[in-house]
Design a protein that fits this description.
The complex is a heterodimer of chains A (285) and B (264). Chain A is built from nine helices and twelve strands. With 285 residues, chain A is of the alpha/beta class. The model of chain A has no long low-confidence stretch (mean pLDDT 82). Chain B is an alpha/beta fold. Chain B has nine helices and ten strands. Chain B has a ten-stranded mixed β-sheet, with helices on both faces. In chain B, α1 links the parallel β1 and β2. Chain B starts with a strand and ends with a strand. The mean pLDDT of chain B is 91. Classes of the chains: A alpha/beta (285), B alpha/beta (264). At the A-B interface, β9, α6 and β10 of A face α1 of B.
Chain lengths: 285, 264
């Protein structure tokens, strides 16, 4: 798995990194830490911003034991060199580690930068902190939402953990991929949470093939020591259902091309969910 | 040996009901008797009359029987105490009530999907099968694997029938249940009461001591159903008396994803 973590200078990055390091420890994913700096702040590149990125990198690495860490422990000087226009990458004089931890800084529009780097990296998952009223990504509004909506891969928007030990996984049909289910399982392990499997149904009837899929999921998650709870939700009540978001520490939704959630939860509703919710949101693709 | 009657359809809730009940064998020596009632009048409109109708009904009946037998065969790999299927045609409630009465079962089990819409659950609670139950009824809404978090629930107190239902099923176990006493009101409390922790209650202390068992403690929480619903979501089983029609406990149990055992 390849994870791209987008960070800026706001305070939400710390809890984002804390959660990602746990996920990385579980999955041994290849990580790209992408610092995003708006063009207007380019003069900070040489000073404060690079220092913050280095601090974040250290904060991430501190979560691992030095001897058993799969990631490179930086021994020598950290030097950033421009590898593509407006993209700077950390180069080391000496490195160890069996998994990648790439550290880059991009200068420009945060949304464009994050999406381009994720594409370039072949990321399976983009993780970024959810903006608050007082802190926006480089002064640009709705960055997490725009990234979530436009990305080709899955996106996790991290909010501060509300200590609710339940994760919601919205399933609308049998098309959800195995990779996505595994990712949901990882999240449940990460949050040490039970898994609420909401099956979107029509008039409380569940097709036989969907029941078979649900049965597979229940058995799979139980084998992973995760407790799955099935709940049927009628399509007409889905928006009311999702508004009880305080019940969950993370809401995951499958937003593939065949997903009916795309239809019943148009863009502006996803925006509201990501923007107004205290709950982290994972959009699976 | 306890005899358990389990209502089976060709669906996932029935599979979960079998698995859930089978796990109780860790604490209780039991035999499981699956039953299915084919309600022919509920099937798609039959074709023709006379022997044509009879032939059509026979084929529907055998189709259902085969599907359920396949489910039982699957589940038997992990639940060896499943007896052969009993299948009848007719009215479901009447047949099941008659079967419980005739064979003197100790427990009746059925599965249903937990739904965000509470009407289906409440309708079931208000059915004659539940109201006029001759033995405890276990409604399996979810199966979460090996899990022994049990909650005894009551309004204003924990009824003795609820504690007895717990003892009947778990007397051979060392499970210590929690209890929740609900004080229903129309509004959520201004402050979170969940942090007040577990207390001990004299009547429960005596009952559990008499049976040589322990319980973790009781939480007494006031608030509306929405507020209390967060207190009833993390248990493999909730044990309750059947609530009166219109009592907020109906709605609370309907909102819980947990399986519920109704005491007699």
């Amino acid at each position: 798995m390849r994870i791209l973590i987008a960070i800026d200078q706001n305070s939400y990055n710390e809890h984002t990194l804390a959660q990602v390091s746990n996920l990385a420890a579980n999955t041994w994913a290849d990580i790209t830490l992408l610092g995003v700096l708006p063009k207007k702040d380019k003069d900070l590149l040489e000073t404060e911003f690079i220092d913050s990125i280095n601090e974040y990198q250290n904060y991430f690495l501190e979560k691992f034991d030095e001897l058993s860490s799969p990631y490179l422990q930086v021994k020598g000087d950290k030097l950033f060199t421009e590898v593509r226009p407006n993209i700077y990458e950390q180069k080391y004089t000496e490195k160890t580690g069996c998994k990648e931890l790439n550290v880059r800084v991009g200068v420009g529009n945060p949304v464009k930068m994050i999406l381009e780097e994720a594409g370039e990296d072949g990321s399976d998952l983009i993780i970024l902190g959810g903006e608050t009223d007082n802190s926006k990504w480089g002064g640009v509004s709705n960055v997490p939402y725009k990234v979530a909506l436009e990305a080709e891969c899955s996106v996790l928007v991290v909010k501060e953990d509300n200590n609710t030990k339940h994760i919601l996984c919205c399933l609308d049909n049998e098309f959800i991929s195995h990779e996505s289910l595994e990712m949901v399982g990882q999240m449940a392990t990460l949050y040490n949470a039970d898994l609420d499997l909401a099956s979107i149904s029509d008039k409380n009837t569940v097709k036989e093939n969907v029941q078979r899929k649900l049965d597979e999921l229940v058995r799979y998650y139980i084998s992973q020591k995760i407790r799955p709870w099935i709940e049927l939700v009628d399509i007409s009540l889905f928006q009311k259902f999702i508004s009880q978001r305080k019940k969950w520490s993370l809401i995951t939704m499958w937003m593939g091309k065949k997903s009916i959630l795309e239809k019943i939860l148009p863009g502006n509703k996803v925006l509201k969910l990501i923007k107004n919710s205290d709950t982290s949101v994972l959009l699976l693709r | 040996m306890e005899n358990v009657l389990i209502s089976v359809n060709s669906d996932l809730p029935s599979r979960m009901a079998i698995r859930f009940t089978c796990q109780l064998r860790r604490y209780l020596n039991m035999s499981l008797f699956p039953i299915h009632i084919a309600e022919m009048e509920n099937k798609k409109k039959s074709v023709g009359k006379g022997w044509v109708q009879k032939t059509w009904e026979d084929s529907v009946f055998h189709g259902v029987k085969n599907r359920i037998n396949r489910i039982l065969k699957d589940e038997k790999t992990t639940c060896s105490s499943l007896a052969p299927l009993r299948i009848y045609a007719g009215k479901r409630e009447e047949h099941i009530k008659k079967e419980i009465k005739l064979s003197n079962y100790d427990l009746f089990v059925e599965g249903m999907f937990h739904s965000f819409q509470t009407e289906g659950f409440i309708e079931k609670l208000r059915s004659d099968l539940f109201r006029e139950r001759l033995c405890p009824v276990l409604l399996v809404k979810n199966w979460t694997g090996e899990d022994n978090r049990i909650l005894l629930i009551g309004e204003n107190n924990i009824p003795e029938s609820v504690m007895e239902a717990f003892m009947d099923l778990f007397k051979e176990s060392d499970i210590e249940p929690e209890a929740l006493i609900c004080r229903f009101s129309d509004v959520a409390p201004a402050e979170d009461q969940d942090s007040e922790g577990l207390i001990k209650v004299d009547s429960m202390d005596r009952f559990f001591a008499d049976h040589g068992k322990k319980y973790k403690g009781v939480r007494i929480i006031g608030g509306n159903v929405d507020y209390l619903s967060s207190c009833v979501r993390n248990y493999s089983l909730i044990i309750s008396a059947i609530p009166e029609k219109g009592n907020p406990m109906e709605e609370l149990l309907a909102k819980s994803p947990c399986s519920v055992l109704f005491s007699t």
